[in-house]
Design goal:
By secondary structure, the protein is α+β, with helices and mostly antiparallel strands. The protein folds into 2 domains: 135 residues, Roll (Diaminopimelate Epimerase, Chain A, domain 1); 158 residues, Roll (Diaminopimelate Epimerase, Chain A, domain 1), CATH 3.10.310.10. Helices cover 20% and strands 40% of the residues. The chain is built from 6 helices and 17 strands. An 8-stranded mixed β-barrel has the order 1-2-3-4-6-7-8-17. Helix 1 links the parallel strand 2 and strand 3. InterPro entries: Phenazine_PhzF-like (IPR003719). It holds the Pfam family PhzC-PhzF. This is PhzF family phenazine biosynthesis protein.
Length: 303
């Protein structure tokens, strides 16, 4: 008997853009080793495995694997899986259909709002289950620049400097001066661990204020060689942690801040991630990540 799966392109409103995601809908009975092998077989940045919910108030329990390891939380798997679960519930629709999907991930229960649209990309926004927190110091600017094949003068803009924040997995946030520097960035794996640490989370999220689109606030690239991802087209969990860096360096005032992030353009997989940050009395109160997704394929796994 086959196990149903689907492939979606996430953080985009059209196919063959954004970040592709595989979702295995019938994951019961799969061992950890088997799920890791299936994720490696798909060879996408993440593969989601869906299990029946333990809590009757939840939609599903999910587990998320990169080609190399399991993650406690990730953004584009959350957006894509929430949309797919709503599609499974409602089927073909006319007009629009709102839905609430609750996914239990290792980080906790993640509440997602979904809007299905007839003949158009669906949209989902989720409440980030934890606020970003600092994840320790970064290495010196010269070493970071060398690991990205850049010059030290390329690192930083305004008062933004390298930092580390986490929501689940930690990320190194590396500001660069402009789109030109960002386009030149290329991982030097011979010194990558010297610049970004020796654990499995040596991800470098490289960003600048200059953007391709007027409505975007930041342009970003994300390199995660230790997770088996040379470059990621769109990284929602990094965008969630990035809220910590934005709040710290930009000193956001009270209110709700809508921040659009471009990613994946250098890979030919343009992606748009919507980050919302609620600030109250100088402190972060809540964070939300949103984006569109399209269904690309359905099939069966015979494993």
């Amino acid at each position: 008997m086959g196990r149903r799966y689907a492939v979606l392109d996430v953080f985009t409103n059209k196919s063959l853009a954004g970040n592709p995601l595989a979702v295995v809908l019938d994951a019961e009975g799969l061992s950890d080793e088997r799920m890791q092998a299936i994720a490696k077989e798909f060879n996408l940045s993440e593969t989601v495995f869906v299990f029946p919910p333990e809590n009757p108030g939840h939609t599903a329990n999910i587990r998320i694997f990169t080609p190399a390891l399991e993650l406690p939380f990730a953004g584009h798997p959350t957006v894509g899986t929430a949309i797919l679960m709503a599609m499974e519930r409602f089927g073909d629709i006319s007009g629009e259909q709102d839905a609430v999907v609750v996914l239990k991930e290792q980080i906790g229960a993640v509440r997602c709002a979904v809007v299905l649209r007839e003949n158009a990309a669906a949209f989902s926004e989720f409440d980030v289950p934890k606020l970003p927190e600092p994840a320790g110091p970064t290495r010196d600017k010269e070493l970071i620049a060398a690991a990205l094949s850049l010059d030290p003068v390329d690192i930083g803009f305004e008062n933004h400097a390298p930092s580390r924040y986490q929501v689940g997995a930690p990320f190194n946030f590396i500001p660069v001066r402009d789109l030109g520097a960002l386009a030149r960035a290329k991982p030097d794996l011979t010194i990558w661990h010297d610049a970004f640490g020796n654990d499995t989370h040596t991800d470098a999220y490289v960003y600048c204020r200059e953007t391709r689109a007027h409505e975007s606030a930041f342009h970003a690239r994300m390199f995660a060689p230790a997770m088996g991802i040379t470059e990621d087209p769109a990284t929602g969990s990094a965008a969630a942690a990035f809220a910590g860096a934005v709040h710290f360096f930009d000193d956001l005032p009270s209110g709700t801040h809508h921040i659009r992030i471009e990613q994946g353009f250098e890979m030919g997989r343009p992606s748009l991630i919507d980050l919302e940050i609620d600030i109250e009395n100088g402190a972060m109160h809540a964070i939300r990540i949103g984006g569109q997704a399209t269904l690309v394929a359905r099939g069966e796994l015979f494993v």
